[in-house]
Amino acid sequence: MDALMDKNTVTMLKRIGRIGRPLLAIALALILALAPVSSVWARSGGRIGGGSFRAPTFSAPRSIDPRSAPVYPGGGYGGGFGFPLLLPFFWGGGGGGLLTLLLLIGAGSFLVQTLRSAADSEDGDSILGSRDPQVTVAQVKVGLLASARQLQKDINTLALEADTRSPEGLSQLLQNVSLSLMRYSDYWAYGHAEAGKLPLSRAESLFYQASLQERSKFSIESLTNRNNQLQRAWQPALEGNAGGIPGVGEYLVVTLLVAYRGDSDTLPVVNSVAELRQCLMQLASIPAGRIVAVEVLWTPQLEGDTLSADALLTEYPEMRLL
């Protein structure tokens, strides 16, 4: 009898579990839907950037039209073992001066054509190598105390005004953001920098993978300016500390992603404010002609939104305390 009751009890509990799981899911959905916006949104984020990873195009070396090649005495074209070099076998005695002249012309034509072919071969090899040039992908992250709220407003303004379609505009954006960050160096708390050089075809994948990884940390991408395409997500006013004094343990995080051509000094490992400043200065000094792509990502973007110390350490474990 006891065994039968135990069996019935287990069966009943299983039925309750099957019915309870959907109800629990519905209850959680209702809680999220009815909860205040500020408690549902972990963080808002912004993104400014642009650029293109298309490789430069090159035209193939122009082939020489035989009809345009110089004609030498005897009716043959230059560059081959034609009439001038075969002439001794058919020339019967005398004419030593003319024969010598014809031999020199033929030998010179052959030598010039050989050197030209070698140069064209070298040019072709360099062109093939330059179709996938080396590109450096650099990433610098700065964690600031939330007391630097004016920096958040400055970057928001840059997002609305920056020209992100041209290398010159991207260079200006990179300089402005780097300078803004350095002006608030007294508020720096965490930092990180890394850079790697790889072929253009692989650099694009690495760049956008790093961008997606940063963007995945935002609960909402509330302001975007990508290639001068401005987008602002609709959101209700946040509750709580909007416009007030930032609480203890709240932070801002700004990430700079830059892809650029050519050799450059490696970024130092960031363990101090001085090393982080050096990284920003290196990025800000990259000429516009070498820039391939730039992205600036920051969180929180909305005033009143916050990033707690626990969230910073969880989402950005690579950053070091300065």
Keywords:
322 residues; 8 strands; 8-stranded mixed beta sheet; elongated; alpha+beta; 2 domains
Characterization of this structure:
There is one protein chain. The protein has about 325 residues and is of the alpha+beta class. The protein folds into 2 domains: about 45-55 and about 135-235 and about 245-320, no CATH class; about 75-130, no CATH class. Helices cover about 45% and strands about 20% of the residues. An 8-stranded mixed beta sheet has the order 5-4-1-7-6-2-3-8, with helices on both faces. β4 and β5 (about 230) form a beta hairpin. The model is unreliable at about 25-40, about 55-95, about 120-130 and about 240-245 (pLDDT under 50).
Helix-strand pattern: HHEHHEHHEHEEEHEHE
**Overall body shape:** elongated
Total helical segments: 9
Q: Can you count the beta strands? A: 8
pLDDT averaged over residues: 75
Computed over alpha carbons, the radius of gyration is: 34 Å
The main sheet orders its strands as 5-4-1-7-6-2-3-8
User: Sheet with the most strands?
Assistant: 8 strands, mixed
Question: Which SSEs are present, and which pair or pack?
Answer:
Layout: H1 2-34, H2 37-40, E1 44-51, H3 83-86, H4 96-130, E2 134-145, H5 149-161, H6 167-183, E3 188-199, H7 200-215, E4 220-226, E5 229-232, E6 251-261, H8 273-284, E7 291-299, H9 309-315, E8 320-321
Parallel strand pairs: 1-4
Antiparallel strand pairs: 1-7, 2-3, 2-6, 3-8, 4-5, 6-7
